[in-house]
């Protein structure tokens, strides 16, 4: 009997050396008895289509896409999921009958981490998102599916925040946090979605928005989440970083490719936590 060919997957980004996706997917595969390889591919900033084409031409079955190429990926694929269409970004690509398909699993991963691992449910909660870039756009539709009370955006650049509001207002109650009346607003969940991580130099947390039991969630993990984590601890708030979201969105991608939903274990989380700290 001929030996079964190794299934080939990858993550494409720039930079890419920091990505934990190979560790996550190889863990899933080993746990399920699936033979696959999963590599990091650094694409030139103007060479995303070439990198994807080369990978699939060489036998690749599917790839994840990370910064800064998620919008490029949306433009690249020939068909995309409804969620990807709403977010305008793709982080999971696969090929079927010669057609490139794209999906977005970031929002699903975020909600899964909150509900399954943190026992926090969005329904009727007041949500504040810090930042108006691609990371916030990637999770807003999935948040609305869980019927929050409201979503507010806090961003240094008003025009960028306004674009996010215009894009997603059809989904539900979303508005810009009024800086003149901040003290009138309280939130159950505050999400840091700034691309560079929060620090005193590049972002500030509005004062007076937290209540006892409020949760701070940083979409980043490791050193990039340290400033928001320290802020939460100093103010006696509950804090979570985005490592759980990373694992959960990877599990969704794995399911899209293989048709099997991997078991997200505490052991995997702790293994990756040790690597990032």
Structure description:
With 277 residues, the chain is of the alpha/beta class. It folds into 2 domains: 7-104 and 244-276, Leucine Dehydrogenase, chain A, domain 1 (Rossmann fold); 107-241, 3-Layer(aba) Sandwich (Rossmann fold), CATH 3.40.50. Helices cover 38% and strands 23% of the residues. The protein contains 10 helices and 12 strands. Helix 1 (21-32) crosses helix 9, helix 5 packs across helix 6 (134-145) and helix 5 (106-117) packs across helix 9. It is globular and about 60 Å long.
Strand content: 15-25%
What is the helix content?
A: 25-40%
Low-confidence stretches: none
Put simply, the count of helices is 10
Coarse structural class: alpha/beta
Strand order of the largest sheet: 2-1-3-5-6-4
- What is the CATH-assigned architecture of the largest domain? 3-Layer(aba) Sandwich
User: Which sequence of SSEs, written as H and E, runs from N to C?
Assistant: EHEHEHEHEEHEHEHEEEHEHH
Number of domains: 2
CATH homologous superfamily (4th level) name of the largest domain: NAD(P)-binding Rossmann-like Domain
Q: At the third CATH level, what is the topology name of the largest domain? A: Rossmann fold
Distance separating the two termini: 45 Å
Q: Supply the CATH class of the largest domain.
A: Alpha Beta
**What is the total tally of β strands?**
12
What's the pLDDT, averaged over the residues? Answer: 92
- The gyration radius over C-alpha positions equals 19 Å
Q: Specify the biggest β-sheet.
A: 6 strands, mixed
- Shape label: globular
């Amino acid at each position: 009997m001929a030996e079964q060919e190794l299934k080939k997957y990858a993550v494409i980004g720039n930079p890419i050396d920091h990505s934990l996706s190979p560790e996550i997917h190889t863990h899933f595969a080993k746990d399920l008895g699936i033979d696959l390889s999963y590599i990091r591919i650094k694409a030139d900033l103007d060479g995303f289509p070439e990198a994807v084409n080369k990978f699939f031409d060489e036998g690749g079955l599917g790839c994840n896409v990370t910064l800064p190429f998620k919008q490029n990926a949306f433009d690249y694929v020939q068909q995309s999921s409804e969620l990807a269409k709403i977010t305008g970004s793709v982080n999971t690509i696969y090929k079927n009958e010669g057609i490139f398909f794209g999906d977005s699993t970031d929002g699903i991963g975020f909600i899964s981490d909150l509900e399954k691992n943190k026992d926090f449910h969005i329904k009727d909660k007041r949500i504040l998102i810090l930042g108006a870039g691609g990371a916030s756009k990637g999770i807003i539709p999935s948040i609305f599916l869980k019927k929050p009370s409201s979503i507010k955006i806090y961003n240094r650049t008003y025009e960028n925040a306004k674009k996010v509001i215009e894009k997603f207002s059809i989904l539900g109650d979303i508005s810009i946090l009024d800086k003149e009346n901040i003290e009138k607003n309280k939130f159950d969940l505050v999400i840091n979605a700034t691309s560079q991580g929060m620090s005193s130099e590049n972002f500030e947390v509005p004062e007076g928005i937290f209540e006892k039991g409020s949760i701070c969630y940083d979409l980043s993990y490791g050193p990039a989440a340290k400033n928001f984590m320290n802020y939460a601890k100093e103010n006696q708030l509950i804090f979570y970083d985005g490592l759980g979201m990373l694992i959960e969105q990877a599990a969704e991608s794995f399911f899209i490719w293989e048709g099997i939903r991997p078991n997200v274990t505490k052991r995997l989380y702790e293994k990756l936590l040790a690597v990032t700290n």
